[in-house]
Amino acid sequence: MTRKQYFIIILILGSLSTISPFSIDMYLPGFPAIAEDLNTTISKIQLSLTAYLVGISVGQLLYGPLLDRFGRKYPLYAGLAVYILASVGCAFTTSADTLIFMRFLQAVGGCAGMVAAQALVRDLFPVTETAKVFSWLILVIAVSPMVAPTVGGYMTAAFGWHSVFIALAVITLVILIGVFFALPEGKKPDPTMSLKPKPVLRNFLTVLRNPQFLVYTLVGGIAAAAPFAYISGSPDVFMNIYKVSEQEYGWIFAILSVAMIGSPQLNHLLLRRLKSEQIINIALVYQIVIGSLMVVGVYLGWYGKTSLIVVLFLFLIGQGLTAPNASALALAPFSRFAGSASALGGSFRMGIGALVSGAVSLFHNGTALPMVGVMACCTLLGITVFYSGQRAATHYQEAVLAGTVAEV
């Protein structure tokens, strides 16, 4: 693989992975305008975010078997087409309920990119390179929340919130063209992979019985859910509590997203000296310390707008260290079932994200405490699972290296 091919593949896989982050972040500054236009409340519009997260969680379970059975590209084409049509539906909706339903469909289509991108990493790169590749993908993904809310805020102010969903449809169409012309096939179709419920469930159970997958999917999923608390709570915290405008909120979101751009680059350097497991441990301990400071500081009233942005920035730095290493370790044992493993992992992450998003709304009390409290709890639970399950995962890795256990 030449350097140019490597760059193009990473760019396309990163673009596929950014479809959902763009879909989540780009319309956040438009919440007040959408609620006003559809004659409803912001809390009702927030359900469209929850619907999107539920759609991703459910949709990924569908694409896992499809990607293993039909290869990577055909299910990807179908999913992106559904996403484009649903985006147009969101743009022209006239009711909050229809928007919520269209967002669900949008997620079911768009998550094909997320699942296929992770499976293709496992297809196209050796196991020893996957953590580095995932770091590159995280870097590309991290740019989206830096750009999306800012662009979304200005588009909403200039052209109305409908323009955001038209832009998402156009962006995804461009990505679809890139996939068709420039992305390698990856794993070939496997006619022996059945799509009947019983065999599909059996494949999922095969993946779930793998201790390495289970431990690192739980660790990555729970710890990586912290940003969903931030995404769900930040519009209320900054636009309602601190009274910032849509454009200013977009810039705050962009600044905080820089935290997740630099840390994947740090991960590249750390991987030269440390194992992925060691990096996860360091990142989670770091986030527990910062998370504790966030919770105590908000509770005692230490933070104003600027100081809260600073402490959130410090916390989010750790996300770019945990996520790529956990994903690489979770998918490492799989070859034939890489699609199913990717789907299960992604479904779990988004399912936890939906619960976390709901928890922030449930504990809403007019302060930033529910947001930062849920973020800190995610990290605490993540490190608890990591310490509890690391021994079983390590024994499995040693068995694979010894040749007593084969890839699945």
Automatic annotation (TrEMBL):
Transmembrane annotation, as ranges: 45-64, 76-94, 100-121, 133-155, 161-183, 213-231, 251-271, 283-302, 308-331, 343-363, 369-387
Topology of this chain in the membrane: Multi-pass membrane protein
Top-level taxon in the UniProt lineage: Bacteria
GO molecular function: xenobiotic transmembrane transporter activity
Location (main, coarse): membrane
Key words of the record: Cell membrane, Membrane, Transmembrane, Transmembrane helix, Transport
GO biological process assignments: xenobiotic detoxification by transmembrane export across the plasma membrane
GO cellular component: plasma membrane
Localization per record: Cell membrane
Pfam family, one: MFS_1
Parts forming coiled coils: none
SUPFAM superfamilies membership: MFS general substrate transporter
Major facilitator superfamily (MFS) profile domain sequence ranges: 9-391
Family: Belongs to the major facilitator superfamily. Bcr/CmlA family.
Record protein name field: Multidrug transporter
